[in-house]
Amino acid sequence: MVYIPTRMPEIKDAEELRRFVEDELQRISQAESEQIEVELRPVGQLPQKPREGMIIYADGVVLFPGVPGLYLFNGTTWNVVTAASLSLPLAVGSGGTGSATAAGARTNLDAAARTQTFEWSGNIKTPVNQDFRLVERVPFAGTVTRGTVKLASGTCTATFKINTTGIGSLALSATSSVVTATSGSSNTFVATDLIQVTISSVASPIDLSWTLEYTRVLA
User: Fold this and answer.
1) Residues 171-211: pLDDT tens digits?
2) Is residue 174 a contact partner of residue 156, using CB atoms and an 8 Å limit?
3) With contact defined as beta carbons under 8 Å apart, do 115 and 214 qualify?
4) Global pTM?
5) Which domain holds residue 127?
6) Can you point out the beta strands (E) in 91-175?
7) Number of domains in the chain
8) Do 159 and 99 reside in the same domain of the chain?
9) 50, part of any domain
10) Would residue 45 count as lying in a domain?
11) Same domain, yes or no: 129 and 175
12) Digit-coded pLDDT (tens) for 114-134
């Protein structure tokens, strides 16, 4: 909000003058409190009586030809305002991130990385030779990175799939010991995909615990 002076009305007495002055001061205060931007119009000449800290916007035609922009008076000379002169990026203590990269900013601000690791896990009490639908409809995109299985007893093969395509390296031979592997090819999924496991080669398996680790990029 920019303050625009009110034209002074005909003042009849001191009381009216007092009210007029109070109203104007109130309007000035409100304009300053609501100000969210500053408009600097290009100028073609330097101020006659510059003060230290004064800023102007040179037109780059008449004033500082070929180099238009902001200029700061340091008490002696006018200097163009650049990223280098502002010491960008701003330090964290000055309200900045202290880095020119997103990764560096997250580190300096102790912010979480955009790529995060999560997991799905579950249990199939009685594995038989068939498909088991683990995640009916994935709500986001991501990448399966690791699969892990373990049986209480017996053996079987657990082949993890995205829709009907097997995930590379995740056809796991489940036993009573923990079996884990890093995924290979065909390990990315998109929103609405199905995650399932095909059980085969069963030999009295009981109580199959499974875990799928995956990564996704947060918004």
Assistant:
1) 999 999 999 999 999 999 999 999 999 999 999 999 999 99
2) yes
3) no
4) 0.57
5) 115-217
6) 115-124, 131-135, 142-162, 165-174
7) 3
8) no
9) no
10) no
11) yes
12) 889 999 999 999 999 999 999
